[in-house]
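[Automated response] Your request has been received and processed.

Submitted sequence:
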Amino acid sequence: METKAEAPGAQPVPALFFAKVERRYTQGTGALDILRGADLAIWPGELVALVAPSGAGKSTLLHLAGLLERPDGGEVYIGGQPTAAMPDRERTRIRREEMGFVYQFHHLLPEFSALENVVMPQLIRGLSNTEAKARATELLSFLGLKERLIHRPAELSGGEQQRVAIARAVANGPRLLLADEPTGNLDPHTAAHVFGILVSLVRASGLAALVATHNMDLAARMDRRVTIRDGLIEQLD
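Generated structure:
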């Protein structure tokens, strides 16, 4: 399970680092401050839960972390790289090569098999078909789907679909995984099972993960819990 590695002898850096990040949105003639100088560091191999009430800014934080929005102040670092003023093309490259995304809905391509869904992002990145299939098979087998490789999404259970989505998210060996309610559409038993597999994958690969969730039982199983309060990111543990 490979992920991004630092050069030999290099000092470790956070996979994700917010330095005094500000984000605001215009509302009529005024402005709504969502983040007001927020700080956050997530290290390789660390699993961090983001728990906050609706409207607190979870989606904004994830969008900033995923380079889908730019901060109004401060800096967002990915693997030590400042990104706030980075050209769009480079931000897109980082999203494609250094990040993985998992959502509440799996968003798998229905006409392709589980294996093909995991192969596709690797082909887009430039891997050969042979390399991509080998990597996809390894990941899906690790996630307990060795017997389901040729099945299309409609032939899979909800938990299986979400495991394929997780495999797709990490197929390119990202340094950072961003997950937004990854078990939100699953029943409690299946959610716990899928989450356990996600934790195992994070541990095995050494990637960093930020997981937004309302499930406090699952959040308690992560390394740390953070929330957003008054525009700042606060530790709960």
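Summary generated for your ticket: The longest strand covers residues 30-42. Residues 16-235 form a domain with the Rossmann fold fold (CATH 3.40.50.300).
If you did not submit this request, please reply to this message.
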